[in-house]
Amino acid sequence: MMDSTMTTMSMGPQMGRPLPAGKFPGDLLESFLKALNIEDPSILIEARAGEDIAAVDISNEETLILTSDPITFVSDALGYYPVLINANDIATSGATPRWFLGTLLAPPGTSPREVFGILYEMAETCRKWHISLCGGHTEITDAVTRPVITGMMAGTVKRSKLLDKRHMKTGDVVLLTKAVAVEGTAIIAHEFEGRLLASGFSQEDIASCKQFIDQLSVLKEADIAGNHEGVMAMHDVTEGGLATALDELSIAGGYRIRADLERIPRYRETDQVCRAVDIHPMGLIGSGSLLVCCSRETSKDLLEKLTAADIQAACIGEVLEPGRGVAAFENAKPAKWPHFDVDEITHLFRRS
Fold it and tell me: Which of 126, 180, 226, 326 would you label with 25, given CA atoms 20 to 30 Å apart?
């Protein structure tokens, strides 16, 4: 239904004309919302033209989990990123992502076709992960020079299943799924293709890096870990890369963390991309990777379950004494843990 509606609307000549500043036209928005066909009995007031709120029945739920995140580094797949990035945050608490609201701000000159492309990608991503797109806002404004989306996600979890980073303890081990800078590798391939070509990358190499975008979800591994005995905390790797994520985990949990640098997995493609554009993979945005703190006794079984589910994972360190900060080691010798004031990818945008 959504695809056919999009095809029908795309045929109109008005779909390619620039939109004036202000709210997205109500008649066009209504045509999009009617095509959503959300079938979620918990939604009492759904997204519709003229409605400013969504109402959700949570009478049968124990704990409501909320998060919000903007998407600012990408121009491709703008409807895909905000859903998964916010869903990942929800999943780290052990919760199931349920309801999504997205605010899209687009610059003057944007056409209805461009707006609908983003909105439909957002809706299809929600549909794939069984999340209800239940509201938001769309506006044309000169406050932005390219489309920007801020997403808000809500999820639910039984109180007994809620993961709190303050439950981590000395002796727990720290696991990392996939590898560092999965998201950053994809973004650079999409946003800086010309620079990679000039550095000697082939189109095939770049296409391979672009496919890293398919690994941005941590929902599968978070579900496995969240239901595994002995898991105390989870944290997804986002802006600032693994270096920042481990610092954040330490601060939130109230414990120092040991990191063994030689055990941290890095994809060959990521290393090649980072060398080509002169940035550090440890400080590069890394959605798609999940940090898991679990008891040492249960870690082997969890790693086996992740491997059986075709999810790469490695033990990269352990929880130390109460405090904050990361103690880095390389081949059992003390090493410097990198620190990044801003995500490494911002340097590329500043240079471009």
Answer: 126
DSSP string for residues in 38-80: ---TTEEE---TT----EE--TT-SEEEEEEEEE-S-SSSTTT
Distance CA(260)–CA(333), nearest Å, equals: 9
Predicted TM-score (pTM) of the model is 0.87
CATH of the domain at 43: 3.30.1330.10
Residue 71 bridge partners (DSSP)? 149
Residues 139, 52 share a domain: yes
CA distance 185 to 212: 7
**pLDDT per residue over 265-320, tens digit each?**
999 999 999 999 999 999 999 999 999 999 999 999 999 999 999 999 999 999 99
Q: Are strands 96-106 and 132-140 parallel, antiparallel or unpaired?
A: parallel
Helix (H) or strand (E) holding 341: none
The verdict on 61 and 109 lying in the same domain is yes
Domain boundary, last residue among 129, 161, 193: 161
